Amino acid sequence: MQNILNQIDSPEDVRYLNESQLIQLSQEIREFIIDQCAANPGHFGASLGAVELAVALHYSYNTPYDKIVWDVGHQAYAHKILTGRRDAFTTNRKLGGISGFPRMSESEYDAFGVGHASTSISAALGIAEAAHLNKEDRHVVAVIGDGAMTGGLAFEGLNNTGWLKPNMLVILNDNDMAIDPNVGSLKEYLAKLTLSGKYNQFKKSIWNFLGKNNFRTVIQRFENSVKSAALPGSNIFETLGFRYFGPIDGNSIFWLTNAFKRIKNIEGPCFLHVVTKKGKGYKLAEESQTEWHAPGKFNKETGQRIIIKSDKPTPSRYQDVFGETIVELAKKNDKILGITPAMPTGSSLNIMMEEIPDRAFDVGIAEGHAVTFSAGLAAGGYLPFCNIYSSFMQRAYDNVIHDVALQNLNVVFCLDRGGIVGEDGATHHGVFDLAYFRCIPNMIVSSPMNEVELRNLMYTAQLPGKGPFSIRYPRGGDITADWHQPFKEVPIGKARILKDEGEIAVLSIGSVGNDVIKAIKQYEDEGGTPVAHYDMRFVKPIDEELLHKIGKRFSSIITVENGTIIGGLGSAVAEFFTSNKYNVFIKRLGVPDHFVEHGTPAEIHTQCGFDVNGIYKALKELI
Questions:
Q1: Residue 395 is among the residues annotated as catalytic for this protein
Q2: Residue in 80, 103, 280, 395 annotated catalytic
Q3: FRET partner for 178 with CA separation of 20 to 30 A, picked from 159, 288, 513, 575?
Q4: Are 78 and 154 contained in the same domain?
């Protein structure tokens, strides 16, 4: 059988295929994704489930003139492969290669850049309205996963779309999963829609019978009259002003292409509900969908994970330290609760969910709600630990200010994935939190240098009267020694003096301090003058007593942070020295003032100049 995928250089080539060839093409794309992700890790399960959807969309619509907006991007690998990036796919998520998510700057077929959830409907509505204002007859499609539908922005977009009534299609890709299984009443509602065969069979028969004639407007009244009998309650999407179709098999080329053919001729906003299988075509991914969301390298034939062995012990992961520590603290303090927006496995809050299920909450992909829900719990006398990835916390910034900090409520924000995260790139790097939290009144902003410090900061944060408390830590781990040590209270706003002698001072915050130790050792071993090192631990309140001593003693210092140098530790130190009239030269190392692309964390640290070698070079340059 002739390979079809190798002949597809753009969606235009797809439109010459017949149905059986489209099915074959889908199978070849699925095998291609499996082969590629086995060797070069990526977001595996969601993209396998959306292969037929991508093929049918590009077959049915005149892209790139017609616009397809993908939500999140985890499901968009087939889209990338079909749109001229097949041969470049070996570089997916690698330094200098293509992004793991749709990006406008990468391809004209990427109608809108994505990475976070729930954005597609609002973005697609903006594109559709722009086309209307420009008098352009283009189709606009938003593809949103059922997990992303729990985000409030999705419903804001639905509400406005139903009001403006553009010619626009929203496709709900329903696989009953985000990264972990979906939660909440919306999940139950979608399940009822999926099972409501009576209602959908009725609609299908009526619309097929009427065709395109004007009787559709007449029959609409009759259709509305039977909805309540066929489906418990009114269909929420039709209530919002959409024509609702489905559910249909989202892994069937036949059902998808026929649906698109009919919907394209309907005026106004339409909503197509498709049911897909996350991980489809790879048995292990179908059976263990959370595990195979982004599995890393694996043996295609056996499914065995490929782990690079090392003689060194594997460090404990910060997220696991968090997960075990919150359980330990919660067993001593019955006011402690755990909250996460759809990341229980990634954040390790699943440990608490298993051991103390009535005190741990997965609220779905809804970061703003997670924060304000936590504020309400705090107002009710509880102490919520709200665990959100740093880059996702950006989406709830107003909630932090308005609902937590302004009211000085006791909420502990545990920001996982703080700093450079690697291959997911600019949308996921957690590099802004030190800056965006430091300017908020009442907020304590901290970052541990190692896992023991994380435990102690968590212990300190749950002590009475602390108010809003932020603890940010990276992905992975730093130490291999036993971190199960007795809790110690950390004095708020006090740094650790790691090394006090020297002619130059290095001030660091967070786990990057471990690289500072290595750089200083290398510098001193090669004959360099002694270097002092201070682990600041807090950027707010900052250790002013220590900074006064440093300002009087040193003429040159280096600040190091795994975050943006604008607004973070370096800025805080510079502001202090300026306000107190200290004449100190400050060399700031951290993330520069541009969006950093994807690559391994080590590659990006080198690129930004705050890896061990970058710190070492900065020390030499100061002398």
A1: yes
A2: 395
A3: 159
A4: yes
